[in-house]
Each structure stands twice: as C-alpha cells, then as structure tokens.
Design brief:
Length: about 260
C-alpha cells in the first residue's frame, strides 16, 4: 500500500503554552538588552535558555507515516522508524492514561507533549510524540519499547498498523518456508499437527487416541499367576493349577 500520512495539530492548551513561552523569551531578551544593559550573567543565562529552547523546537512532532514496511514518526530534525513486523501491540488509549504520566525529559505543552515520560500506574517509561491529550495510540514493539502518538484518526491508524504487520509477518514466513528454514509442523495448531506430535511429546492423549508404548496387552498375552514365595496375597487360578500336590494320608485304624 502507499504511505498514509497523518499530520499533527496542537490542542488549545499546547498552543497557549507554546506562544506564551515564545512571548516570555522575547520579553527576557528585551529586558536584558534595555534594563541590564547586556551584563555578563544575564547574557549567559539568555544564551543557555535559547539553546534549550532550540533543542525543544527541533524535536517538535510534525506528522506520521505508515506503509507496508515501516511506521515513521517525523519531527523537525528527528525521525523515529519502527518496522511493522516488530509491532507487538497497537491500540487506542483514553485520556485518563495520559493523566497518570509525568515528564522525565521532555516537553509538557511547549510544541506538544513529547520526550520520555513516566507512567505512575505501570511504572514504565514511554516515548511520547503527541500534540494533544486525546486521540492517543499506544504502540509496543517486540523489544518492549512503548511509543505513544496522537492522531486525528486513531482508529484508522490502528487498522493500518495491524494490517501492515500481519501482511509483513506472513510474507516473512513464506520466504523462510521457501528457504527451508521453517517446517510447517512447527507452527501448525495442535489439532492439525500430523500424528498429534505435541500431545505425544507432552505425555497426554486425546480421546480415542493412545500414546505409543502405553497400550495394555490383551488378556491372552498376560503372564500366568505366580504365588509369591513370602506368602503374599494373590488369587489362585480356578482349576488349581500351579499348587503343590497333596500327600496321601494313612488310616491308623486299618487292621493288620
């Protein structure tokens, strides 16, 4: 599919913070020039402040793109690329999830909400690339890195990421299968695997199926009864086979 683009847009609070910050910097610059007369310490502080603000400006999120291979987050000079087959989870999150987060190293409204944030409930560190506090999408990759982005149409973004991920994984599997690196039995469900090999390996059998080596021998092939020498309990055969022969008794009353 062709690349789909989603542009960022600032919410009302973010716009106020952004323009208010620019106005405060301009006021400080005018004050340093006309009031303090370009003194060393105020000039050094203003230069440091301008450097920090410049770093924030260069990290402003601009737009998102999704295609058959990658999901990309474009900032002014920064690019974050996530391969679609490495996406483990993609889902929408509500505004309450955002309220339980605090910034560790990033912006809270100036040009958006981005940087490294800490989630108080899950005790996880997330990478934010948002410009509003609603319509959020959470993306977690196979390396357990969490990204949170904002999008004008979050449902469409979730659908496109899911479809691209499934298509790419299926393509990778077909190529690996054609190259002989995988066997069909290794990924088939347990019920469709030939011979139910998984059940045999686990030592369990399905109804009507017996594991190899556990079938009971027929009665005709069983060993005959043998009495235990220690007088153990046993059930002798009905015909008395296997019992010792009785000695003949003598009658003491016989006349000689």
């Amino acid at each position: 599919m062709t690349a789909t683009k989603f542009k960022y847009r600032l919410d009302r609070r973010s716009r106020r913070i952004t323009w208010g910050t620019f106005a405060a910097i301009a006021a400080l610059f005018v004050g340093f020039h006309f009031i303090w007369g370009g003194a060393y310490l105020p000039a050094w502080f203003l230069l440091l402040l301008l450097c920090i603000i410049t770093l924030f400006v260069l990290s402003f999120p601009r737009y998102l793109t999704i295609d058959d291979d990658t999901f990309q987050i474009h900032c002014i000079v920064e690019l974050t690329r996530i391969h679609v087959e490495e996406i483990e989870t993609v889902r929408r999150i509500d505004r309450s999830h955002f309220r339980r987060m605090i910034p560790l190293l990033g912006s809270y409204g100036f040009g958006g909400y981005f940087g490294y944030w800490f989630h108080l409930s899950d005790w996880t560190i997330c990478k934010l690339y948002t410009t509003e506090r609603k319509q959020l999408v959470l993306i977690e990759d196979i390396y357990e890195d969490i990204y949170i982005v904002s999008c004008p149409d979050p449902d469409l973004l979730v659908t496109l990421c899911t479809v691209a991920r499934d298509r790419k994984r299926e393509e990778i599997y077909r190529h690996a299968l054609a190259a002989g690196k995988l066997s069909p039995e290794s990924i088939l469900p347990e019920s469709t695997a030939p011979g139910n090999t998984r059940a045999k390996a686990a030592g369990t059998t399905s109804p009507g199926t017996e594991a190899a080596g556990t079938r009971e021998a027929p009665p005709s092939q069983k060993e005959p009864f043998q009495e235990e020498p220690s007088g153990g309990k046993g059930t002798p055969p009905a015909d008395g086979a296997g019992l010792p022969a009785k000695e003949p008794t003598q009658n003491t009353n016989d006349k000689r």
